[in-house]
Design a protein that fits this description.
By secondary structure, the chain is an alpha+beta fold. It has 4 helices and 8 strands; from the N terminus they run αβββββββααβα. The strands form 2 sheets. The protein has a 5-stranded antiparallel beta sheet with strand order 1-2-3-6-7, with helices on both faces. A 3-stranded antiparallel beta sheet has the order 4-5-8. A hairpin with a 2-residue loop joins strand 4 and strand 5. The longest helix is centred in the N-terminal third of the chain and has 16 residues. Bound molecules: zinc ion. Zinc ion binds next to helix 2.
Length: 184
């Protein structure tokens, strides 16, 4: 296992749609190694999700996990391969996002509050579940990475874009003033 370098905005891997993992590649050594490395890299960077293109690998695959130390709010580790997403409703909610490939920036991004996720796990077994709340936001953010899309592309305007320190000083507490829900 290894902590891999995370590519940053400007690297073509972040703007290139990833290829599906092929049936013969499922449950293979290369895939297992990449999954282990993605998890190590995500944890080392203190991120809540990481997609294969963020380490320069063009595969439709991401991992996520949040609040490991808080059983109440914990989102257990999940590996998602070749995913398809379907919004559970047309509603959108705004919340702050950052990205390990766009270090130090935060912005308000509209996302669906719940999405149905279909795909495979690392062993090639079918996945079909509904993610909601913060988990739904993570899944939509990581899914975008598989299509060459970053959170900046999803912002309705760039007024809320902020560096982390300034966000902590001026914006974090203003979350209640986030723009109202706008249906899509
Ligand atoms: Zn990201």
């Amino acid at each position: 296992m290894a902590v891999l370098p995370i590519v940053r905005l400007g690297h073509p891997a972040l703007r290139t749609p990833a290829s599906p993992v092929l049936p013969e590649e499922l449950a293979g050594r290369e895939l297992a190694q990449l999954v282990a490395d993605l998890v190590d890299t995500m944890r080392a960077a203190e991120g809540v999700g990481l997609a294969a293109p963020q380490v320069g690998v063009s595969w439709q695959l991401f991992v996520y996990e949040a609040e490991r130390d808080d059983p109440e709010r914990s989102i257990p580790l999940r590996v998602v391969v070749n995913p398809m997403l379907e919004a559970e409703s047309g509603e959108l909610v705004y919340d702050w996002e950052g990205c390990l490939s766009i270090p130090d920036l935060r912005g308000l991004v509209p996302r669906h509050p719940a999405v149905r996720v279909r795909g495979l796990d690392a062993a090639g077994q079918p996945l079909d579940f509904v993610a909601s709340g913060f988990e739904a936001r993570i899944v939509q953010h990581e899914f975008d990475h598989l299509n060459g899309v970053v959170f900046l592309d999803r912002m309705r305007d760039l007024q809320s874009l902020a560096f982390y320190d300034e966000w902590e000083s001026y914006l974090r507490e203003a979350e209640d003033d986030a723009p109202p829900l706008r249906p899509e």
